[in-house]
Amino acid sequence: MPPSAPTAPTAPTELTAHALRAAIVARRLSAREAAEAHFARMERVEPQVKAYLTTCREPALAAADAIDARIARGESVGPLAGVPVALKDNLCTRGVRTTCSSRILEHFVPTYDATAVERLRAAGAVTLGKTNLDEFAMGSSTENSAYGPSLNPWDVTRVPGGSSGGSAAAVAAGTAVAALGSDTGGSIRQPAALCGIVGLKPTYGRVSRFGLVAFASSLDQIGPLTRDVRDSALMLQAIAGPDPHDSTSAAADVPDFARDLEAGVKGLRLGIPKEYFAPGTDPEITRAVEAAIDVLRRAGAEVRAVSLPHTDYGIAAYYVVAPAEASSNLARYDGVRYGLRAGAEGGLLAMYKESRRRGFGREVARRIMLGTFALSSGYYDAYYNQALRVRRLIKRDFDNAFAEVDVVVCPTSPIPAFKVGEKAADPLQMYLADVFTVCLNMAGLPGISIPCGFTSGNLPIGLQLIGRPFDEPTVLRAARAYERETDWHERRPAGLA
Amino acid sequence: MSHPLGEYELVIGLETHVQLKTATKLFCGCATRFGAEPNSQVCPICTGMPGMLPVLNRHAYELGVRAALALHCEIAPFTKFDRKNYFYPDLPKSYQISQFDVPISKNGWLEAAGEGHTVRVRIHRAHLEEDAGKLLHPESPVGRADYSLVDFNRSGVPLLEIVTEPDLTTPADAHAYLTELKQVLQYTGISDCDMEKGSLRCDANVSVRLRGATVLGTKTEIKNLNSFKFIVKALEHESERQIRVLEGGGRVVQETRLWDPVVGETRVMRSKEEAHDYRSFPDPDLQPFVITAEEVERIRRTLPEMPAARRRRFVESSGLTERDAEILTADRAIADYFEACAALHAAPKLLANWVIGELRKEMNERHLEAESLAEKLPPARLVELARLVEDGKITRLVGKDVLAEVLTSGAAAGRIVADKGLAQIADAGALEPLVDKVIAANGKTVADYRAGKKPALAALIGQVMRETKGKANAPLVTKLLQDRLGA
Ligand SMILES: [Zn+2]
């Protein structure tokens, strides 16, 4: 054993994916034992965390047994062989209900797997179940779930962030080694930050959206939530690449994300955007992020100031573009073919109205109305077209910045995990939780959130690293360089059973 | 002479939807076969299931470009798709993928043969879109059931919408345009244009204005025009209705009207206020689509000669009448067949008569498709038959029977003539006894003829022909009869 390896045996629920896979392949642990350990832990901590909406114990154990059998026969296994993973419940799973945390899809069982899910399974991952989210991924706390909020493993009176809050909570709570989420305006990175784990939003087009229930098609991207940066690379490797079923998936070659992971940041130019260090951010977060930048500087990175002048318009433009697309994407839930149907006795119009009124929660309804308005004739130019212009300006800001630096560094969230109910009554306050994350989606860029400290109240803080389009390798390399210098990512919440 | 519309003139623009002849749908791999069991040609994509994404069918796109080129349109080097949002149970995603501001093509034209003049129509644009499903209203024992069913087989089927400028001024011209359009689309293999199967559908925009006025009148849109005959009727009816409104001091209201073929009227479907706000915006699931000039040229090179050009050629170089050329070019397969025959024969006019006359009659009776004609009756066979008649080996009357026999048995005409003894009787000695017999047996007719009723001769000729089973040389029979009866 190398001297740096832990000397005491670690529970399977505390391992990283790469460590767990190594243990399984070396037959120190079976895939079944790993899966069972997770289901056992779920029984203890799920009542407090509520990360899962659906668990799939039998199919998961069958998949784990199949991996064990392959290993026993000496056959090759995938890069995620036996790794127990969770799936955000807006990723379609064949034969397993996919609710999007909405009443309208409460009993919806797809006949198909999302491409990302299929690829994860092909890599040997064992899918444990489906995790909670803000309804149709609209929110930053999971409080918008029709099935109740998930809770933050670091403080179960607080939210785990959102919308991939269930996935983040599961990985932080040790009920999944890794998870898939989706990120439309920060929905992977913000809950990762609030739960003290790693969350990666790949470049738009890097991962197929086929089978991801659409929120805002031009912004949505599937990505991994993991315990460290190496796992993030491993998961991305499994799900990335062109898909003939998704016209917006990029034809770009998929690099080996692990190759330069340990190359360090020497000579790498980091840009610090002054707009992301404005008042309004929790001072503890600002301090932690500044300290993290120092760590990277000491590791050899060159740090420069950059400007992203249109950042302030990001939220406003995002809340036009995303609802506009959502208003159209969610129009298919009409009670005709599947999903909740109500009011049919009152005729067609009554059926539409009543099915949608009962099926959608308040936030979803609010965004459908916002988007419908923004696309209406007479308002289209003032809202939708104007938002597209802002989107181009934001993209140009980043292009200019990336002419001078390789990675942009900033906080992931302006605030740490907040109390359940604290912001629920004020949608505008909630929207501002995305202030540092939405611009990447508007520009289609890759970004990662990694743990970079804790507040005085022991709540995790996230550091966001942003890269050029399709330059995940540099983002991952810089994130890994930071991770090597620190141990924030090794901390596990202590308050759970 | 007073014009039927008096001091008014009619302004018509047509929007025609044609189904593109592809094996699969526009955005998924489902089949497009007509008449299949309901919902047997569907998948999660064309039924709007969660998480499903469209992928453009390249063949449909190329067919669209091909049609646009045949209509002399400019092809957009870059095109995109948009969503047209509205709720209806036959529309599974609650939006239709169509093209809004960057259609695949625009600014074309089509010339059609009108009555005594050429109808030139500018094409405003032609764009791709997907079809919706179909609502079925089942009957229950006590009338219509209290539920409806939806068949999604048609959902996602590729359509090309061809929009004209308001260049048409009479229902007859509209008919001429549609006839020509249908021909061009069938010629180019773009669509079956079968209105009964819904592969060609038409909406009309109609307005009237005082002759010479420069501003267009308020238009109405007429939907549900599912035959060319109805289109003409609906346009006639609607223009008369609008003129009546104006003459009565009223104003035409902008609205969508539905043609009711049973009553023979248009009636209001929805007013301008009730018009949908489709909230069109670019479909974020589909990338803008680019076509290079080389690709456009490659498609252009595969276009066949268009019917209008072919008609002109048939008249100018084959010496056919306008009417014959029109009939022969109406169906590309027939025109191809005619040309294959004409290549083997010096007198195209004679062959045209055979094709237009006897052959088309036989095809109708035998339900013979034009596409399989060359196989059933190789051009050389028809030419052989035509020659037998021209050379006087058989009469034209016998020729018709021989044609039927050739089609039935597949044998050569010469062989049939020889085997059945059908050669023409042009020997006066052989015919004279028969002529005498007919005169003796038809005293009344003979009397009529002698009394000056010249048509009576034809009846007598017919009698002789019947006696010879059509083999007698008709001019000779005529001469013999006239000699005997003392013309
Ligand atoms: Zn389909």
Report the sheet with the most strands of chain B, covering strand number, pairing sense and barrel closure: 9 strands, mixed
Largest sheet, strands/sense/barrel of chain A: 11 strands, mixed
The general outline of chain A is globular
CATH class of the largest domain in chain A: Alpha Beta
Radius of gyration of chain B: 29 Å
User: What is the CATH superfamily label of the largest domain in chain A?
Assistant: Amidase signature (AS) domain
Count of all domains of chain A:
2
Low-confidence stretches of chain B: none
Please outline what is shown here.
The complex is a heterodimer of chains A (497) and B (487). With 497 residues, chain A is an alpha/beta fold.
What would you say this structure looks like, in words?
The complex is a heterodimer of chains A (497) and B (487). Chain A is built from 15 helices and 11 strands. The longest helix of chain A is centred in the last third of the chain and has 22 residues, at 381-402. Chain A has an 11-stranded mixed β-sheet, sandwiched between helices. Chain A folds into 2 domains: 12-309 and 393-490, Amidase signature (AS) enzymes (Alpha-Beta Complex); 311-392, no CATH class. The model of chain A is unreliable at 1-8 (pLDDT under 50). Chain A has 497 residues and is α/β, with parallel strands linked by helices. In chain A, α2 runs antiparallel to α3 and α5 (165-173) runs parallel beside α6 (189-195). Chain A is globular and about 65 Å long. Chain B is α+β, with helices and mostly antiparallel strands. Chain B has 3 domains: 8-295, no CATH class; 307-420, no CATH class; 428-485, Arc Repressor Mutant, subunit A, CATH 1.10.10. Helices cover 40% and strands 20% of the residues of chain B. Chain B contains 16 helices and 18 strands. In chain B, the strands form 5 sheets. A 9-stranded mixed β-sheet of chain B has the order 2-6-7-12-1-13-14-15-16. A 3-stranded antiparallel β-sheet of chain B has the order 5-4-17, with no helix packed on it. In chain B, strands 3-18 form a two-stranded antiparallel sheet. In chain B, β14 (220-225), α3 and β15 form a beta-alpha-beta unit. In chain B, α2 packs antiparallel against α3 (228-247), α7 (332-342) packs across α10 and α15 crosses α16. The longest helix of chain B has 20 residues, at 228-247. Chain B is elongated. The mean pLDDT of chain B is 91. The A-B interface holds A 90-92, 98, 100, 105, 108, 110-112, 114, 209-214, 216-218, 244-248, 324-325, 327-328, 331-332, 334, 336-338, 348, 352, 372, 375-377, 380, 384 and B 44, 47-56, 83, 85, 87, 89, 92-95, 150, 277, 279-281, 284-287. The structure holds zinc ion. Zinc ion is lined by residues 25, 28, 30, 42-43, 45-46, 156 of chain B.
